[in-house]
Amino acid sequence: MNVVAQVFAGVAVLVHLLAFTWEVLLFERPGVHAGIFRIPAENLPATRLWSFNIGWYNLFLAGGPVTGLVLLHTGDPTAGRVLVLYSCAFMMLAGIALGVSDLLALSRPRGAGRGGALAQTVPPLAALVALAF
Questions:
Q1: So what's the pLDDT on residue 133?
Q2: CA end-to-end span of the chain, whole Å?
Q3: Which residues lie below 8 Å from residue 91, measured CB to CB, with a gap of 6+?
Q4: Would you give the DSSP letter of residue 27?
Q5: Cβ–Cβ under 8 Å, residues 27 and 52
Q6: Measured between alpha carbons, how far is 83 from 71 in angstroms, rounded to an integer?
Q7: Among 39, 61, 81, 87, which residue is least crowded by beta carbons within 10 Å?
Protein backbone atom coordinates (compact mmCIF):
# COMPACT_ATOMS: atom_id res chain seq x y z
CA MET A 1 0.00 0.00 0.00
CA ASN A 2 1.48 3.32 -1.02
CA VAL A 3 2.20 6.20 1.35
CA VAL A 4 -0.44 8.50 -0.18
CA ALA A 5 -3.20 5.95 0.52
CA GLN A 6 -1.94 5.52 4.08
CA VAL A 7 -1.88 9.27 4.70
CA PHE A 8 -5.43 9.76 3.43
CA ALA A 9 -6.62 6.78 5.48
CA GLY A 10 -5.02 8.49 8.49
CA VAL A 11 -6.80 11.75 7.70
CA ALA A 12 -10.10 9.82 7.50
CA VAL A 13 -9.35 8.41 10.96
CA LEU A 14 -8.72 11.92 12.32
CA VAL A 15 -12.03 13.16 10.88
CA HIS A 16 -13.89 10.37 12.66
CA LEU A 17 -12.02 10.96 15.93
CA LEU A 18 -12.94 14.63 15.73
CA ALA A 19 -16.58 13.68 15.13
CA PHE A 20 -16.45 11.38 18.18
CA THR A 21 -15.07 14.22 20.30
CA TRP A 22 -17.77 16.63 19.20
CA GLU A 23 -20.65 14.15 19.41
CA VAL A 24 -19.78 12.46 22.71
CA LEU A 25 -17.49 14.67 24.75
CA LEU A 26 -18.38 18.23 23.69
CA PHE A 27 -21.90 17.99 22.28
CA GLU A 28 -23.58 20.11 24.96
CA ARG A 29 -21.31 23.09 24.35
CA PRO A 30 -23.15 25.77 22.35
CA GLY A 31 -20.32 26.08 19.87
CA VAL A 32 -20.72 22.40 19.06
CA HIS A 33 -24.45 21.64 19.13
CA ALA A 34 -25.55 25.02 17.79
CA GLY A 35 -22.48 26.07 15.84
CA ILE A 36 -21.43 22.81 14.18
CA PHE A 37 -24.60 20.73 14.16
CA ARG A 38 -27.11 23.60 14.09
CA ILE A 39 -29.16 22.08 16.89
CA PRO A 40 -30.83 24.64 19.18
CA ALA A 41 -30.33 24.24 22.94
CA GLU A 42 -34.01 23.39 23.45
CA ASN A 43 -33.54 20.30 21.26
CA LEU A 44 -30.58 18.93 23.24
CA PRO A 45 -32.61 16.42 25.28
CA ALA A 46 -34.13 14.98 22.10
CA THR A 47 -30.82 14.76 20.24
CA ARG A 48 -28.37 13.73 22.98
CA LEU A 49 -28.96 9.98 22.57
CA TRP A 50 -28.52 10.28 18.79
CA SER A 51 -25.31 12.24 19.22
CA PHE A 52 -23.86 9.87 21.79
CA ASN A 53 -24.63 6.80 19.67
CA ILE A 54 -23.29 8.29 16.42
CA GLY A 55 -20.16 9.48 18.20
CA TRP A 56 -19.30 5.97 19.37
CA TYR A 57 -20.07 4.65 15.89
CA ASN A 58 -17.51 7.13 14.52
CA LEU A 59 -14.91 6.07 17.10
CA PHE A 60 -15.36 2.39 16.25
CA LEU A 61 -15.25 3.15 12.54
CA ALA A 62 -11.94 5.00 13.01
CA GLY A 63 -10.56 1.81 14.50
CA GLY A 64 -10.75 0.01 11.15
CA PRO A 65 -8.06 1.91 9.27
CA VAL A 66 -5.92 2.17 12.41
CA THR A 67 -5.99 -1.61 12.84
CA GLY A 68 -5.40 -2.09 9.12
CA LEU A 69 -2.38 0.23 9.13
CA VAL A 70 -0.95 -1.53 12.18
CA LEU A 71 -1.38 -4.90 10.47
CA LEU A 72 0.16 -3.53 7.31
CA HIS A 73 3.32 -2.57 9.19
CA THR A 74 3.55 -5.53 11.57
CA GLY A 75 3.61 -8.49 9.24
CA ASP A 76 0.18 -9.05 7.72
CA PRO A 77 0.03 -6.63 4.78
CA THR A 78 -2.81 -8.45 3.01
CA ALA A 79 -5.15 -8.27 6.00
CA GLY A 80 -4.08 -4.68 6.65
CA ARG A 81 -4.75 -3.62 3.07
CA VAL A 82 -8.17 -5.30 3.04
CA LEU A 83 -9.17 -3.70 6.35
CA VAL A 84 -8.09 -0.23 5.22
CA LEU A 85 -9.89 -0.73 1.89
CA TYR A 86 -13.12 -1.91 3.54
CA SER A 87 -13.06 0.78 6.23
CA CYS A 88 -12.38 3.58 3.76
CA ALA A 89 -15.15 2.33 1.47
CA PHE A 90 -17.53 2.23 4.45
CA MET A 91 -16.55 5.77 5.51
CA MET A 92 -16.93 7.10 1.97
CA LEU A 93 -20.37 5.53 1.51
CA ALA A 94 -21.51 6.85 4.90
CA GLY A 95 -20.33 10.31 3.82
CA ILE A 96 -22.35 10.02 0.62
CA ALA A 97 -25.41 9.00 2.66
CA LEU A 98 -24.90 12.06 4.88
CA GLY A 99 -24.64 14.26 1.79
CA VAL A 100 -27.83 12.80 0.32
CA SER A 101 -29.71 13.33 3.59
CA ASP A 102 -28.46 16.91 3.60
CA LEU A 103 -29.66 17.46 0.03
CA LEU A 104 -33.04 16.07 0.98
CA ALA A 105 -32.96 18.02 4.27
CA LEU A 106 -34.09 14.91 6.15
CA SER A 107 -32.75 15.76 9.59
CA ARG A 108 -31.74 19.41 9.81
CA PRO A 109 -31.73 22.67 7.89
CA ARG A 110 -30.53 22.24 4.32
CA GLY A 111 -26.79 22.75 4.02
CA ALA A 112 -26.05 21.92 7.67
CA GLY A 113 -24.34 18.65 6.81
CA ARG A 114 -22.45 19.66 3.66
CA GLY A 115 -19.10 20.19 5.39
CA GLY A 116 -19.43 17.00 7.39
CA ALA A 117 -20.38 15.03 4.31
CA LEU A 118 -17.35 16.32 2.43
CA ALA A 119 -15.04 15.69 5.38
CA GLN A 120 -16.35 12.16 5.72
CA THR A 121 -16.25 11.39 1.98
CA VAL A 122 -13.13 13.02 0.51
CA PRO A 123 -10.25 11.57 2.61
CA PRO A 124 -11.34 7.93 2.34
CA LEU A 125 -12.16 8.43 -1.36
CA ALA A 126 -8.66 9.81 -1.88
CA ALA A 127 -7.23 6.78 -0.04
CA LEU A 128 -9.24 4.44 -2.27
CA VAL A 129 -8.10 6.23 -5.42
CA ALA A 130 -4.48 6.10 -4.22
CA LEU A 131 -4.89 2.39 -3.50
CA ALA A 132 -5.79 1.83 -7.13
CA PHE A 133 -2.38 3.12 -8.25
A1: 82
A2: 9
A3: 12, 16, 61, 120, 121, 123, 124
A4: T
A5: yes
A6: 9
A7: 81
Q: How far apart are CA 122 and CA 68, in angstroms?
A: 19
Which three-class secondary structure state does DSSP give residue 49?
Answer: helix
CA distance 23 to 90: 19
Strand, coil or helix: 14: helix
- Using CA atoms, how far residue 127 sits from 18, 65, 108, in Å, is 19, 11, 29
Q: For position 112, what pLDDT does the model report?
A: 57
pTM of the model: 0.90
| Cα separation, 30 vs 49, whole angstroms | 17
The distance of Cα 3 from the centroid of its chain, to the nearest Å, equals 20
Q: What is the mean pLDDT of each run of 10 residues along the chain (133 residues)?
A: 97 97 96 91 94 96 98 96 97 94 68 81 97 87
CA dihedral angle for residue 127, residue 14, residue 26, residue 40, rounded to 10 degrees? -20
Find, among 112, 111, 113, 84, the residue nearest to 98 by Cα: 113
